[in-house]
Structure formats: structure tokens, C-alpha cells
Amino acid sequence: MSAVQPNRLPKLERYLSSPRHNPTALQLILAAQLRRLRLEAQLSPIVASDALRCSDSKISRLERGEVQLKERDVADLLHLYGVDEAQVAEFLALVRRSRESGWWHAFDDVVPKWFSKFIGLQEAASVIRTYEVLLMPGLLQTPAYARAVAAADRRPGEDRTVVERRVELRLARQQLLDYPVAPKLWVVVDEGVLHRQVAVREVMHEQMLHLARMAERPNIRVQIIPFTAPQCITSGFPITHLRFDPPELPEIVYLEHLRRAEYVDKEEETEHYRSILDELLNAAACPEESLQMVQDAVKRYG
User: Fold this and answer.
1) Please, are residues 67 and 24 in contact by the beta-carbon 8 Å criterion?
2) Nearest-CA neighbor of 101 among 127, 139, 76, 68?
3) 54-67: b or e for each residue (b if 16 or more CB lie within 10 Å)?
4) What is the DSSP letter of 95?
5) If you placed Cys at 205, which of 150, 195, 253, 301 could pair as Cys (CB 3.0 to 4.6 Å)?
6) Which domains occur in the chain, in start order?
């Protein structure tokens, strides 16, 4: 088996230009590169698993970024795939970086483990498509609106400072929309969200003004599903579909339930949820009509 030529192993530093360190994104990228290198070496997952003395299912999980990468495992695979020593050293340095904590771990006191992964994935995404049926999408909430939502979600016995910490986290997550290379955000919202008064009128008025302003950004598209739209096939809970810039990375669907979440990355399943989002988009008003609906809400709360 011939060694992988230097120009065939991409300079991965070009994926590390985010203003904030994102180990989730880096792990996904490295995992995808491992899969690409195996395919180029024309080796099956079974051959790779023999090298690590593990099951081929572990190789599959490694290549999907579902488990944290270990230097020894990665080094053994890279040598098997014919990568030269200099590039192995470079790759392993990035593996070590992928094991560092992301910025959001400073909020571990208020971030459930099942949600922590989503923050990293959202930061890594190049396109975010999301559907909300009850509340304003988190990336588009004002501080006051977010505070009202967090206060309503506060569990009995929790300190009130937890509310402020959750608001702080939400605002920190929103910074990705201001990155030099910001993701494209495509939001589909049920019209009921515009009418559901989760806070006092002043807060709702400010929130609707903010939504109207954000909808005019070139990287943000907001569409409202009117009450008069035909019935859509939905499960009644939010759906977020994430696409990533390196084409070899799998698309991921995030489904949030009460106190837990599900991450879907198998192609046939992501295709199912992608088709649901497409149906919702078809039922939604166009961006211009949607903006008018938001502006009507501004007047209603004004």
C-alpha cells in the first residue's frame, strides 16, 4: 500500500478559524478525515477494526465523531492508512485540541449534558434550519424574552441566579450569528409563537422588533406558518437540521424533548426530517409576507 501523499491530507487548520475554540467541530472534522483516508486506502471497517483490536462498529462511531478520539487509536489508523510521520504528528496535535473543553463548559452548572453537544454542533454548522412551534428560537431571543422563558422553566428549589446564568449562556450562543463567516440561519415559526405572550407587552414588543431586524440580515431567513396554512405533518416539537461545510461531514438532526434530546445522523432518518422541514417551508408564508406578519405583531404589542 502506497503512502498518502502530503497534498492528499488537507491542512486542517483552515477549519479552525472560528473566533472561539470548538472541540465538537474539530472532532467531527477529524473523524470525517479518518473515514476519507480509510476509503482512499481502500480498506474496509473490518480491516481497520483488526488494527485496533476492536469491533467494526467502533470504527463506524469513530468516523461519525460519536466518541472522543484517542491518540493511540488515531495513530494506529493513520499508520495503517499510509500517512507519513510528519502528518501523523500534525493530526495528533489536533486530536489533543479536540479533547479540550469548549467555551460553553464554563456554563456546566446550568447546561444539561444532552444539550452541551448541541451547542458545539450549532457552532460548527454552516447552515441551521430550525422549526419552532411554541417559543421564539433561542438564537433570536432578546435578553428579556430569554429571561422570561428561563424563569418559567426554573425548577422548584433552584436558585434565581440559575435564570441569569441561562440567559447569559443563550446570549453567548447568539454570538455565532456575528462571526466573520456566520452560518446561514433559516427559521420556520408557527404563527402561534407571535401571539403567545410569554412576557409583559413591553418585552413582547421588543422581541418582535428584534425578530423583524434579524429577519432583514442577509444570512437569516424567517418564515411564519400562518394559522390558515394547511395542516402539516409534524410531531409537535422543535426540529433543528444542521449542515456542515466540509461535505464529508454527516448532516445532523436535533430533536429536543422535555428534559432530553435526540441526535439523528443516519442518512435515511435525516432525509425524513429534512422532508418534514421542506413541507413546513412550503406551508409557510414567503419571507416578505412573514416579515409583514412580524411587523403586525410589533404593532399589536406596541
Assistant:
1) no
2) 68
3) eeeebbeebbbbee
4) H
5) 301
6) 17-98 (1.10.260.40), 105-301 (3.30.870)
Long-range contacts of 255-261 (CB under 8 A, 24+ apart): 256/115, 256/118, 259/112, 260/114, 261/114, 261/115, 261/118
Q: Say which residue, 158 or 285, is predicted with more confidence.
A: 285
The residue behind cell 471497517 is 45
Asked if 230 and 171 count as a contact pair (C-beta separation under 8 A), the reply is no
16 pLDDT above the threshold of 60: no
Burial of residue 297, with CB atoms counted within 10 A of its CB: 0-12 exposed, 13-18 middle, 19 or more buried: buried
Selection from 182, 166, 64, 164 nearest residue 115 by Cα: 166
Q: How confident is the model at residue 226 (pLDDT cuts 50, 70, 90)?
A: very high
Which pLDDT score is estimated for 6? 41
Number of Cβ within a 10 Å radius of residue 102: 18
Neighbour tally for 18: CB within 10 Å:
15
The whole-number pLDDT of residue 136 equals 97
